[in-house]
Design brief:
The protein is α+β, with helices and mostly antiparallel strands and 156 residues long. It has a single domain (7-154), classed as Beta-Lactamase, CATH 3.30.450.150. It has 5 helices and 4 strands. It has helices at 7-16, 24-40, 66-82, 86-95, 138-154, and strands at 46-51, 54-60, 117-122, 126-134. A 4-stranded antiparallel β-sheet has the order 2-1-4-3, with helices on both faces. Helix 2 (24-40) crosses helix 5. The radius of gyration is 14 Å and the shape is globular. The termini are far apart.
């Protein structure tokens, strides 16, 4: 199992993977790419792309379950509230000797800091949504999303 990237590396990913634009067609392209990457690994994941207040792409591969949808919602909520990847949020809190979900201002039924959700941020516009994967160990979920975003940007 891969190690989590360092906090500076996670912040660099968030800067590097900002998008020049993002619309419904881009969501379909990113979601389809994620599905292809996950299927090639036979990864039992669910995938969600949420932007502009709505789900633009959703997919569940064989072996995923309804539990993955709950994880997706909690991870996505954290990214939309705090503006960082869910892996960054967890690693940051662990570095401070705290657990994200045990803080008094966090409702653990609505938020979690397990890797797999990544902010969708426009270069000139700010946070517009999140792309989320659930079903693998958290670092692998995160790396799958990062890989797909890198490929999407490289294709432009």
């Amino acid at each position: 199992m891969p190690l989590a990237p360092s906090l500076p590396e996670l912040l660099q990913q968030e800067t590097e993977l900002q998008l020049p634009r993002f619309n419904h067609d881009d969501a379909w392209q990113l979601g389809s790419l994620l599905r292809t990457l996950a299927a090639a690994q036979q990864a039992p994941v669910a995938i969600d792309i949420h932007a502009y207040g709505q789900q633009l792409f959703g997919c569940a591969l064989e072996g995923s379950s309804q539990d993955n949808l709950h994880w997706i919602a909690r991870k996505r909520n954290s990214v939309l509230r705090f503006g960082h990847s869910s892996l960054y949020l967890g690693e940051y809190q662990r570095g401070k000797g705290r657990e994200f979900e045990q803080q008094v201002h966090i409702d653990a039924s609505q938020y979690c800091a397990h890797g797999g959700s990544f902010p969708l941020r426009l270069k000139d516009g700010g946070l517009i949504g999140a792309v989320t994967v659930s079903g693998l160990p958290q670092v692998e979920d995160h790396l799958l999303v990062v890989s797909a975003l890198r490929q999407l940007l490289a294709s432009r």
